[in-house]
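tool_call predict_complex ligand=S-adenosylmethionine
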Amino acid sequence: MGSLHQPVLVDEVVAQLAPREGAGSIIVDGTVGGGGHTLALAHRIGAGGRLIGLDRDPAMLRLAESAIQASRPPAQVTLVQAAYREMRRVLDELRIDRVHGVLLDLGLSSDQLAWEDRGFSFSTDGPLDMRFDPDGSGPTAADLVNRLREDELAQLFFDFGEERFSRRIARRIVEGRQSESIRTTAQLAGLVRRSVPGRARHGSIDPATRVFQALRIAVNDELGQLDAVLRAIPDMLVPGGRAAVISFHSLEDRRVKWAFKTNPNLTVLTKKPVTATAHEVAVNPRARGAKLRVVERCPNLS
Ligand SMILES: C[S@@+](CC[C@H](N)C(=O)[O-])C[C@H]1O[C@@H](n2cnc3c(N)ncnc32)[C@H](O)[C@@H]1O
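tool_result ok
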């Protein structure tokens, strides 16, 4: 079965990265997912070009692999299971020094959200896991929810979810886990919904949204991953090479904007982030919050 995920801002990414076509052109997609952007770029760079695709999730790489088999792009595509903060090591292992373009499309794919056994969704019941790499050794969301102190949970929901009822929710979780540990997404979502005031419970956004986002960010150290790759990207680019990052919430976008703006070796090509057209949002509501920022490594730097 193919990917459910509809990639966002595909034409904009290809236009902004403006990859050189043909022999020797190398692009790294640090978040392959179902392969939507990977394929668009692999078709653009054409024969003789090379696309290196990374993802932490082996199930996403399997989906991308079948999309590539079906679409047969002319460029050579190499998929590697790795976190994007490992990008430098992956390139070293492939004996690649510099690349012409890097793409990151942050967050999770619609496929991961739909797989109940991965625990990303509060709309279905499943084990409270949320690791992008389910074979990895890191803590699951259930580990955090059952082990962190009340003040640590409250801080996490506030920092990574910008959740204004963070203290009430943390208190309710700590009370709830005294009778039985919290193991499923439905258990956690129920506790969160019962801990916020009625007006928040009946609003347009499910009260569990921000808590689930915060846990996912913490479980996968998403901001640490992002900071590390943003530091590493400039030195991986050839002079004139470009990097593009799509982010979906302000915690990420602020970091991308700052890292790009403060690096003297980079020129920001998007003074304002590129966003989706009304048409794209109408056909793909996920595109609504997407922000694309692009930089170029100064052409006269070696
Ligand atoms: C929004 S999806 C990418 C969708 C993709 N651009 C497409 O066209 O289908 C984000 C992907 O990044 C992966 N991911 C998240 N954090 C990662 C990390 N630190 N390193 C590598 N992959 C990561 C997720 O597993 C997910 O497949």
